[in-house]
Amino acid sequence: MTFTTNYELRCRDCGKGWGNQPKSICEDCFSPLEVSYDYDALRAAFSRDKIAQGPPSMWRYSALLPLPPDYNPVLPAGFTPLLRASRLGNQWGASHLFLKNDAVCVPTLSFKDRVVAVALAQARAFGFDTVACSSTGNLANSVAAQAARNGFKSWIFIPGDLEPAKIIGTQVFGAKLVRIAGSYDQVNRLCSQIADERHWGFVNVNLRPYYAEGSKTVGFEIAEQLGWRLPDNVVVPMAGGSLITKIKKAFTELIELNLVEPKPVKFFGAQATGCSPISAAVKCGNSEIDPQKPSTIARSLAIGNPADGHYAIQAIGKSGGWAEDVSDPEIVDSIQLLAQTEGIFTETAGGVTVGCARKLYRQDRILPEETTVLCITGNGLKTTDVLFGKYAEENAIPPKLAEFNRYMEAGEDSLAQTRGEVAETVEV
Ligand SMILES: *Cc1c(COP(=O)(O)O)cnc(C)c1O
Ligand SMILES: [Zn+2]
Q1: Residue 388 Cα, ligand 1 centroid: separation in angstroms?
Q2: Quick one: CATH architecture of 113-213?
């Protein structure tokens, strides 16, 4: 077949090609479309050296993304740190533990900045002047911010119960925010209907195949930052189930292009128990999703009927991995554990990842000496509400040395207090 670009949309099930257009479902068989590439053409154009000479952002992998010809990026999204986690690893007896820290992704502090960057590149090429999304929070922030920088109008649809920081962090960019009295799954269904009526680029509806490709850059970066090696295991939080399947696609492409040695990687999915349709299916050995009604503080992962659930189950199963889920209190404990051991403040989704990883080590599904990467996908400053009441309020003391010394003499009590273990405040 011939490509006008190096890529085109192809049906994931029947394989029919659909060219490049704002479309996410195959009209013949109703399966999702995915971007496929001409790897033979790419192999010649791609080497580790060329990548290393690229910018310190996700755009160093532009040749492996569905970008319009001559696309000129306007933001340095991605290329976040891969950190060795020795102190967290010590707690679990794990010697080769790493954190992929997208809590500091540019511009809005979550991995969604990667997917939006690719979707908006195509939105411009398709001639949209308005972009939109249905969101559990982080996508809202990222679409609003990048629409502002790219000069699009934006319409953002969210479930009514999102965290205040994610609402303000959308409105500040001048986006039209529409709160819907319903779950994410209802918001998403509504957006599909709106997309049929209006000429808007919905990043996760009619632009979804392009959007999803942006997630591959997490996988490319992990491999490059490990010195062009694949890890033994990755632990990935799952909402719609797209990120985990795209990290897998990234590793497969790197092998296909001879950039890394072929090697099996186990994929582990992480969910909150209060919304765990994918992990429940993996644990029961089902290949299809049984939709759930979400009830969890991990709102960014609260998708009860995940669009890529079936493919996430497949990716996990075929790799020999597993899926776990953790309760809301475990999520909060895990946020604190990561902050206190590694100095990274993650949001609830990161708490889910850390909490599930802990379980997977305990179950010996992940072994201590294996190279294991946890994907930290969002920033804790957006979900501070889950920590309210965790730390006692400190009374202000007068700015006098004697007062400070008296405060210190209160000793154990006040030290305990600063650790949040004593509820009452000490009079000084
Ligand atoms: C959206 C999101 C995810 C999950 O992404 P999917 O590709 O929908 O599975 C994980 N973490 C955070 C912080 C997110 O916002
Ligand atoms: Zn099809």
Answers
A1: 24
A2: 3-Layer(aba) Sandwich (3.40)
